[in-house]
């Protein structure tokens, strides 16, 4: 059995994104570097579904890139919800904003330029939903920094938690960082989690 075919089957049998998101993906591949940073259809629809279930009023996204995941989450949020997105690439922010401006959910999204750890230090209030998908070397730092800002019952979603399988045999700083975070979460009494083998890994964490 070819497991890649099963991945394709899951993609094909997941309901499609809105046309604007499909256009965003195509434009990202044609106009931006590192388009593989996109979350992809299954992760995007998972984020939308989780937001639909959770109905978060405040969301923090660490690593926005061209806005695919932010728009996916916003789609499932209440109309008065807010997503604060941390991003260090000004061109990516400009690109994403052009799509936010065309989306009925774009008014919920507030990009902030700058290193996420610095942005987090200046944030007030609690968040119901956090999505971590930025530089892997800082994954553990992001988790520890956001934990005080996550509300009781709040959801933390960590993308690329399998890091292309490198967590099984870490060699580089990013490999060790992702693996260390996964191991910490499994023992963290502040939370409960389930680690899913979906695409490149998705670790779902709920704060007690």
UniProtKB/TrEMBL annotation:
Name of the protein in question: Caffeoyl-CoA O-methyltransferase
Molecular-function annotations in GO: O-methyltransferase activity; S-adenosylmethionine-dependent methyltransferase activity
InterPro entries documented for this protein: Cation-dep_OMT, SAM-dependent_MTases_sf, SAM_O-MeTrfase
Domain of life the protein comes from: Bacteria
UniProt-listed GO biological process terms: methylation
This protein's UniProt keywords: Methyltransferase, S-adenosyl-L-methionine, Transferase
């Amino acid at each position: 059995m070819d497991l890649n075919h099963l991945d394709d089957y899951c993609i094909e049998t997941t309901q499609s994104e809105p046309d604007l998101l499909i256009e965003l993906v195509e434009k990202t591949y044609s106009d931006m570097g590192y388009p593989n940073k996109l979350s992809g259809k299954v992760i995007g629809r998972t984020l939308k579904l989780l937001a639909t279930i959770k109905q978060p009023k405040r969301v923090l996204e660490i690593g926005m890139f061209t806005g695919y995941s932010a728009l996916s989450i916003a789609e499932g949020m209440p109309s008065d919800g807010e997503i604060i997105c941390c991003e260090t690439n000004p061109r990516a922010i400009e690109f994403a904003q052009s799509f936010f401006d065309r989306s009925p959910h774009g008014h919920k999204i507030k990009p902030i330029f700058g290193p996420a750890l610095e942005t987090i230090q200046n944030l007030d209030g609690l968040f119901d939903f956090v999505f971590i998908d930025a530089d892997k070397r800082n994954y553990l730092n992001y988790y520890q920094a956001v934990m005080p800002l996550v509300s009781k019952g709040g959801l933390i979603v960590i993308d690329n938690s399998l890091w292309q399988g490198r967590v099984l045999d870490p060699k580089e700083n990013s490999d060790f960082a992702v693996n260390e975070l996964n191991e910490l979460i499994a023992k963290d009494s502040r939370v409960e989690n389930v680690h899913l083998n979906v695409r490149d890994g998705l670790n779902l964490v709920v704060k007690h």
